[in-house]
C-alpha cells in the first residue's frame, strides 16, 4: 500500500525536521536548510501486517511558493498541517492553510493538525488547549509533536496510515475507523512527560 | 625485547606515514569557501581532478593578469567571452562580476544608497521572514556560524533586508538567501553583494522571485519545451509518469544551482551568468538532462524519476567543473536567444491564460 503524505505549514515550523525524524529517527540541531519549492522523499515503513510505502512531499512554507505546491494537493492522501508552538503567527495562519487545503485537496483527504516544537517549554506561546480548541472547531485530529525529542512523531504518521489502510479495506457496512479516538487513546498512553 | 619494540615502532611509523599519504589526509576538511566537505566526499577523485585543474587555474590566472594589466575596464568582446567561459580566477571574480553585470556602474552612481537602506525603517514582516532563514542558510559553512568572527550571517541579514526595502515588490523570497550567501563569500563585501543581487533580480533573470513567480514558472516550461526537442525520450517519459517540471527543476532555477551542484561548478556557471545572461541556466539544465538521459530513462515510476533527477546532479561529471563547462557549450547544441525569448513569451502567455 502506497501512501502520499504531504507536509504543509508556515516557513520554519519544522516540516523537514519532522520528516527526517520519522524517516531516520534523528534530529541534528542546526543542520537543516530552508526547503525551496517542493521536495519528494520516500521512506519505507514496515508495519506488523503489511508493508506500507510512504511517499512524502516536503514543501516550502513561504506564501509565494503555495502556487507551486498546491498543484500537488490533489494527489495527496494525507496532509500533515504544522504550526510552531513557539510562533504565534504560524498558529494564526492555520485557518488560511485550511482554506487553501479545502480549495485544492481531495474532499476525503486525511488531515491532521500538529503543534510542533512541543519540547520548547520556555519559548512556548501557543497553549496546548488553544491547539485543541482550534482542531475541534474544524473537526480535525490534533496532537503536539516534537521533532527534537521525537514526541508523537511516529504516532502521527502511524495514525494516518491506519486511517488510510482502514479506508482502503473497508466494506460499506463496517464501522468507521475513528482517527480521533485512536489518537486520543494512544496519546494518553504515551504521555507521562507532557507539558 | 628491545628489538621487538623497535620493530613495532618502525611499523607504527610506517603505518602513520601510510595514513598521511591518503588523499583524505592531505586535503582540508573545509573547502576554500568555508564549506565542510560532506562525509561521502570523494577525496581521491578530487585530488586527481585538482592535479590537472591547478595547472589550468595557473594558466588562466596569468592570462587574466595580462588582460587586466593597467585597466579595470573589461569590455564585451569575443576574447573576454572566451576568457570568462574558461573561468575567472577567484582573485578577479568579484571585479569581473561587478563590471560585466553593470553592478559596478550602479554602485558608482548611487553612493551611500546601500547604507541609507540599512539605516532606514524596516518592514517587520520582511525582517521576520529573513530571520527564519538565517540559521538555515549554509549550516555546513564555518563562516556562516553565529560564532564565526566575523559571522557572515550578519552580512547576509543586512544585504537581504536592504534588498527587500529596495525592491518592495519582491521583498524576500526563499532561495535569495542561498544566492546572496554566495555573493558574500566571493565579494566579501555587503554593498557589492547588494548591487550584484540587484543586477541578477533586476536585469539578468526574469521575475523568478516576485510573488506570482511567473518568470520561474515560465522558465520551467521553457526547459520542458527545449527538452521536448533536444531530448525527446526524456520528455516523453516525464509525460508518461505525469511528472511536472517544477517538481524536479524549481530549485535549479531559484537557487541558480547553489546547493544543487558543487561550489566550484556553480561559480564557473555564475561567471557566464553575469557576463552572458540567464540563457546559461538552460545550457546547464539541458546538459545535465541530455548527458544523463540513459540514467533518467531507467526510471520505472514517478518516485524513480525524482530519484534520478537527484542522482544526475552528483558525481564526477559535475565535480569536474572545467570539463562540465566545456560540455555545456557543446552538448545541448545551438540555443539562440531568439528561441529562448519566443518560448518565454509563449509559456508566460499560456500560464497567464490558465490563471497561474
From TrEMBL, chain A:
GO terms for biological process: protein transport. InterPro entries: P-loop_NTPase, Small_GTP-bd, Small_GTPase. Gene3D superfamilies: P-loop containing nucleotide triphosphate hydrolases (3.40.50.300). It catalyses: GTP + H2O = GDP + phosphate + H(+). GO terms for molecular function: G protein activity; GTP binding; metal ion binding. Its EC number is 3.6.5.2. Keywords: GTP-binding, Hydrolase, Lipoprotein, Magnesium, Metal-binding, Nucleotide-binding, Prenylation, Protein transport, Transport. The keyword Nucleotide-binding applies. CDD domains: Rab26. SMART domains: RAB (SM00175), RAN (SM00176), RAS (SM00173), RHO (SM00174). PANTHER family: PTHR47978. This is small monomeric GTPase. It comes from Erpetoichthys calabaricus (Rope fish). The gene is RAB26.
UniProtKB/TrEMBL annotation, chain B:
Residues 87-277 form the Rab-GAP TBC domain. PROSITE patterns: TBC_RABGAP. SMART domains: TBC. GO terms for molecular function: GTPase activator activity; small GTPase binding. InterPro entries: Rab-GAP-TBC_dom (IPR000195), Rab-GAP_TBC_sf (IPR035969), Rab_GAP_TBC_domain (IPR050302). It holds the Pfam family RabGAP-TBC. May act as a GTPase-activating protein for Rab family protein(s). This is Growth hormone-regulated TBC protein 1.
Amino acid at each position: 500500500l502506497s501512501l502520499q503524505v504531504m507536509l504543509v505549514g508556515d516557513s520554519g515550523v519544522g516540516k523537514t525536521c519532522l520528516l527526517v525524524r520519522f524517516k531516520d529517527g534523528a534530529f541534528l540541531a542546526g543542520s537543516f536548510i530552508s526547503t525551496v519549492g517542493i521536495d519528494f522523499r520516500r521512506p519505507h515503513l514496515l508495519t506488523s501486517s503489511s508493508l506500507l510505502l510512504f511517499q512524502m512531499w516536503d514543501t516550502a512554507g513561504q506564501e509565494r511558493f503555495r502556487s507551486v505546491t498546491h498543484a500537488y494537493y490533489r494527489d495527496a492522501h494525507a496532509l500533515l498541517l504544522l504550526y510552531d508552538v513557539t510562533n504565534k503567527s504560524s498558529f494564526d495562519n492555520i485557518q488560511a492553510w485550511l482554506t487553501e487545503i479545502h480549495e485544492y485537496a481531495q474532499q476525503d483527504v486525511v488531515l491532521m493538525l500538529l503543534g510542533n516544537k512541543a519540547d520548547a517549554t520556555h519559548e512556548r506561546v501557543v497553549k496546548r488547549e488553544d491547539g485543541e480548541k482550534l482542531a475541534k472547531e474544524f473537526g480535525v485530529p490534533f496532537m503536539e509533536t516534537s521533532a527534537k525529542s521525537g514526541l508523537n512523531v511516529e504516532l502521527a504518521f502511524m495514525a494516518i496510515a491506519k486511517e488510510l489502510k482502514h479506508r482502503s479495506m473497508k466494506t460499506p457496512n463496517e464501522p468507521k475507523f475513528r482517527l480521533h479516538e485512536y489518537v486520543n487513546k494512544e496519546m494518553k498512553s504515551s504521555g507521562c512527560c507532557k507539558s | 625485547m628491545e628489538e621487538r619494540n623497535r620493530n613495532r615502532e618502525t611499523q607504527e611509523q610506517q603505518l602513520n606515514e601510510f595514513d598521511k599519504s591518503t588523499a583524505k589526509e592531505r586535503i582540508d576538511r573545509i573547502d576554500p569557501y568555508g564549506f565542510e566537505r560532506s562525509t561521502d566526499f570523494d577525496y581521491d577523485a578530487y585530488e586527481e581532478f585538482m592535479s590537472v585543474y591547478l595547472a589550468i587555474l595557473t594558466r588562466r590566472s596569468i592570462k587574466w593578469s595580462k588582460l587586466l594589466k593597467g585597466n579595470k575596464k573589461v569590455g564585451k568582446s569575443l576574447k573576454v567571452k572566451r576568457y570568462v567561459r574558461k573561468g575567472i580566477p577567484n582573485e578577479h571574480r568579484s571585479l569581473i562580476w561587478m563590471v560585466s553585470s553593470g553592478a559596478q556602474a550602479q554602485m558608482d552612481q548611487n553612493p551611500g544608497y546601500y547604507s541609507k537602506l540599512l539605516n532606514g525603517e524596516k518592514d517587520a514582516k520582511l525582517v521576520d521572514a529573513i530571520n527564519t532563514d538565517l540559521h538555515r542558510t549554509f549550516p555546513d559553512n564555518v563562516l556562516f556560524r553565529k560564532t564565526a568572527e566575523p559571522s557572515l550571517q550578519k552580512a547576509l541579514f543586512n544585504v537581504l533586508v536592504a534588498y527587500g526595502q529596495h525592491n518592495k515588490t519582491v521583498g524576500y523570497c526563499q532561495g535569495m538567501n542561498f544566492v546572496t550567501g554566495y555573493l558574500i563569500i566571493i565579494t566579501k563585501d555587503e554593498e557589492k553583494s547588494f548591487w550584484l543581487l540587484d543586477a541578477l533580480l533586476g536585469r539578468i533573470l526574469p521575475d523568478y522571485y516576485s510573488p506570482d513567480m511567473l518568470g520561474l514558472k515560465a522558465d520551467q516550461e521553457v526547459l520542458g519545451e527545449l527538452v521536448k526537442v533536444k531530448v525527446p525520450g526524456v520528455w516523453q517519459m516525464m509525460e508518461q509518469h505525469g511528472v511536472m517540471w517544477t517538481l524536479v527543476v524549481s530549485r535549479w532555477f531559484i537557487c541558480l544551482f547553489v546547493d544543487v551542484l558543487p561550489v566550484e561548478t556553480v561559480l564557473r556557471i555564475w561567471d557566464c551568468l553575469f557576463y552572458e545572461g540567464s540563457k546559461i541556466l538552460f545550457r546547464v539544465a539541458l546538459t545535465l538532462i541530455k548527458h544523463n538521459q540513459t540514467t533518467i530513462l531507467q526510471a520505472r515510476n514517478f518516485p524513480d524519476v525524482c530519484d534520478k533527477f537527484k542522482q544526475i546532479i552528483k558525481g564526477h561529471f559535475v565535480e569536474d567543473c572545467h570539463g562540465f563547462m566545456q560540455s555545456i557549450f557543446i552538448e545541448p547544441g545551438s540555443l539562440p536567444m531568439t528561441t529562448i525569448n519566443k518560448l518565454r513569451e509563449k509559456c508566460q502567455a499560456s500560464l497567464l491564460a490558465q490563471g497561474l
